[in-house]
Amino acid sequence: MSFNKIIEEVYEKVRLIGNDGQLASYIPELANVDSHKFGVHISTIDRMAFGVGNYRDKFSIQSIAKVLSLCLAYQILGERIWSRLGVEPSGTAFNSLVQLEADNGIPRNPFINSGAMVISDILVSELDNPREDFLSFIRGLSNNLGLDYSERISASEKSVGFRNVALCNFIKSFGNIQNDPNEVLDFYFDLCSLELSCKELSELFLFLANNGQTLFDNKAILTKSQCKRINALMQTCGFYDESGEFAFKVGLPGKSGVGGGIIAIHPNQYALAVWSPKLNKKGNSYKGLKFLEAFTTKSELSIF
Ligand code: GLU
After folding, report:
1. Average pLDDT, consecutive stretches of 10 residues, N- to C-terminus, the chain (304 residues)
2. Ligand 1 pocket mutation pick from 23, 94, 118, 120 by most atoms within 8 angstroms of CB
3. pTM of the prediction?
4. Domains assigned to the chain
5. How far apart are alpha carbons 72 and 91 in whole angstroms?
6. Ligand 1: distance of its center to the CA of 277 in Å?
């Protein structure tokens, strides 16, 4: 059966189930999103593209952006980045402070907030104009000049970002943030505020299904080995405290964000983006997970 047909069928099935879960209200702007939005888009390395529902609507990708900042830092510094952070699932909340004390300010992985702040610190050190240079990097991944930050979302998050401020300063106290914490936090909030549609997201992430190379101009963003490692990290750490469950039920590397988006990668096949804003108790899109579980079950394709 073709991907299009499976997507249509699964979308219709999941559209009709109850819209359970809650919007991520801890960032005020995210509570203003229409909770009934639901979109899906696939981009394949055979250059097939297909979307259903609200797949053209832009939404706040939040933590999904942490994969992109990691890719750029990895491209610049190579394996040296792993002296500043780990590659293990944390088993604690994404914004937790507790492990950092015992781990001397070395975050467990790049996808929890503390890890993403260390990556942000690396980019603030390495890039001449971090905000602009990072945007150019992601625009170049799918040749899309329409990608941008949302000042509305970053300002909203900043206005209540006390815990992130605490995290960044705490890591600084261990010496694992080298720049001014305010500068690092501004970059981090910008990064989380990126707004993309499912279509744009799946096009953007296709290089991770293509051994680290962009499909439209065959540019090597990462080496094959680095690409495998990013996918491995998404597999083990991409879904907060539900990464095991995602591997168990879906069987693909992926990353979620509290805006209700999920990107899933099938190496050598496709990048698939889903968006439905209501989150389950673990902070992952309720319908997004249901969709991906049914999609990989029906297509009988996963990495396992
Ligand atoms: N900007 C969000 C925060 O720092 C990201 C959360 C997420 O999507 O996991 O709280």
Report:
1. 93 96 94 97 97 98 98 98 96 88 96 97 98 98 97 97 97 98 98 98 98 96 98 96 95 97 98 98 96 96 87
2. 94
3. 0.97
4. 4-299 (3.40.710.10)
5. 26
6. 14
